Amino acid sequence: MARKLRSTVATEVAAANTVTTGDRSFEVEGVRSVAIESRRVVTVDQPGFARVVADESQAETYRDSIIRVQPPADATEADIDRVVGALRSVGASVRLAPRATADAVVPRNAVIATSTAGVREVVMQMVGEARLDPADREELRVVIDAALTAEGV
Amino acid sequence: MKIIVSSDWHLDWSTGGVSRTPDINEAVQTVVQAAKREGADLFVFTGDLTNPDSVRSHQAVAIAVAVATHLWFGCGIATRWVVGNHDIIEDGSGGSTLGAVAAIGDTLANAPGARNGMRVYAGPTVEVVNNRTILALPFTPRSHPYDPVSFVESVPRETVVDVVVAHLNIEGIAPGSETKDMPRGRDVFLPLATIRRRWPAAKVINGHYHRRQLFDGVHIPGSLARLTFGEEHHSPGYLVVEV
């Protein structure tokens, strides 16, 4: 059975005529739309995750909810265990999703786009651009320097 | 006539591994109590009771039968049930998960002196209830297709429809999780322009969409629970329709 697609304008006009509810009830032209209490279904990621890490009592706001926890990239295992435990202690059903993907250790734009740079220069610049703590970066620099020297670079 | 409308119960659903049957059933009972409190003349369910092949479909059917029989035999409130896209059984029979309710309704209709206390709209139907004309446009299986536009056009000219109850797609509406996370079946569109041309004063009610809203003049009761993580900001509820 054929159907006509609405024009973009008609769709926009229709959307402008939409009444959505938030949490409220409303009445239009003899039809009452009534809200009821309903179990919360929630994704806890930043900043909700950080709030519970800082203060476990914040988990109370999620009591009896169905929760998907998406830990931020820098969440530690201890933080994750603390948050999941706090949520379960208030009766929430918790499913743990993989943590958010962190940025690459060596960003793509750290590579020197020039044909004149040597291998050692390129590699050491990448070490300099790597997202590491200063102590880790220095340790990496020592290791890489030794490896390059061993290869005659 | 006062009609209570509820929709998209999906009583077999799970969210994050959690069975939703208990809390959706609790919401169903809330709406049943509302029907009694409001003194409703009619209770209408606009589709999607359960998937027929899920492990909890039997629980969903039992709840629907309990609601239909309690409202009619206990409270004198008739019920009407519109078949949705999740209810249909694609085995060529034209059956749906509302078959048990339909069987009780058929028995009532055939009993001497009895009125039709419950009825399932498995195909397009025009029915007069309490002197008000209802046009039902359910979702049907591929084995029993119909053209909603042609059906609406075929309604006799002298018939004035007061209420349209449907479970079809609506052009231009923002698709929600019923489309993205819970898709089932083909697209069949509500012939809104044709309905408006013939009966501009008719109240149009459509299930299928889980966000409770009024879209382009179509009243959408929405589902009775937040069924997926995409529905986190939904506000479940029901409709009270005065005709």
Describe what this molecule looks like in 3D.
- The complex is a heterodimer of chains A (153) and B (243).
- With 153 residues, chain A is an alpha/beta fold.
- Chain A has 5 helices and 6 strands.
- A 3-stranded parallel β-sheet of chain A has the order 4-5-6, with helices on one face. In chain A, strands 2-3 form a two-stranded antiparallel ribbon.
- In chain A, helix 4 packs antiparallel against helix 5 (134-150).
- The termini of chain A are far apart.
- Chain B is an alpha/beta fold and 243 residues long.
- In chain B, 28% of the residues lie in helices and 22% in strands.
- Chain B contains 6 helices and 13 strands.
- In chain B, the strands form 3 sheets. A 6-stranded mixed β-sheet of chain B has the order 7-8-9-10-12-11, with no helix packed on it.
- In chain B, a hairpin with a 2-residue loop joins strand 2 (14-15) and strand 3.
- The longest helix of chain B is centred in the first third of the chain and has 19 residues, at 57-75.
- Chain B is globular.
- The chains are: A alpha/beta (153), B alpha/beta (243).
- At the A-B interface, helix 1, strand 1, strand 3, strand 4 and strand 5 of A face helix 1, strand 11 and strand 13 of B.
- Strand 3 (31-35) of chain A pairs antiparallel with strand 13 of chain B, so a sheet runs across the interface.
Give a quick summary of the entry.
The complex is a heterodimer of chains A (153) and B (243). Helices cover 37% and strands 14% of the residues of chain A.
